[in-house]
């Protein structure tokens, strides 16, 4: 007589009870199954090969699981919003990643705008053998953080040389066109570019 298998699967809602950060796995407590705690279940991710994505929910977060008939094996499909944990946006045009510490990374496809908001340091590391390059095509605006308004009042610091093919101005004064009285009483000439 051939062996038979019960391939029935169930969709279950639960709360994350433990997180395996290195393995990208979760244990989930399922209220509908008398608060049964699952074994370690893999958390589904968009990519895990050459391209990779890593993100795990916190303990206590509500998730959806797909479990086998005995509730022993399965996977965590993802987290879901609730009345306690509301979505960070209300537009189908927005992709938002909001972190517990307040950091936000947001893209609005209707405008093309990208927002990165954080109290931490943003590092762009163009790590190449020959040189490190940051290319900005378009207008670059730097706004100094003011004391008492989320910043420390410190000026931008650059460690290395700056080259410009056009004018450089500070408070309306042109670097190449600037002249001033010399030490000997004469006028200095404009800088040669």
From TrEMBL:
Residues 14-81 form the Gp5/Type VI secretion system Vgr protein OB-fold domain. Transmembrane segments: none annotated. Residues 169-193 are annotated as: Disordered. InterPro entries: Gp5/Vgr_OB, GpV/Gp45, Vgr_OB-fold_dom_sf. This is Phage baseplate assembly protein V.
């Amino acid at each position: 007589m051939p062996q038979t298998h019960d391939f029935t699967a169930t969709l279950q809602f639960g709360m994350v009870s433990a997180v395996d950060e290195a393995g990208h796995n979760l244990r989930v407590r399922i209220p509908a199954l008398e608060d049964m705690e699952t074994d370690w279940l893999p958390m589904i991710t968009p990519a895990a090969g050459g391209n990779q994505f890593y993100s795990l929910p916190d303990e206590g977060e509500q998730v959806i699981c797909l479990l086998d008939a005995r509730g022993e094996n399965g996977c965590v499909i993802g987290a879901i919003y609730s009345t306690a944990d509301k979505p960070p946006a209300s537009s189908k045009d927005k992709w938002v990643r909001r972190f517990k510490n307040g950091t936000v990374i947001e893209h609005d496809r209707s405008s093309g705008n990208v927002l990165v908001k954080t109290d931490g340091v943003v590092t762009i590391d163009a790590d190449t053998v020959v040189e490190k390059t940051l290319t900005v095509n378009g207008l670059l605006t730097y706004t100094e953080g003011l004391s008492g308004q989320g910043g420390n009042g410190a000026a931008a610091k650059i460690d290395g040389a700056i080259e410009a093919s056009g004018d450089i101005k500070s408070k309306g004064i042109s670097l190449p066109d600037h002249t001033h009285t010399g030490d000997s009483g004469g006028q200095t000439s404009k800088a040669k570019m």
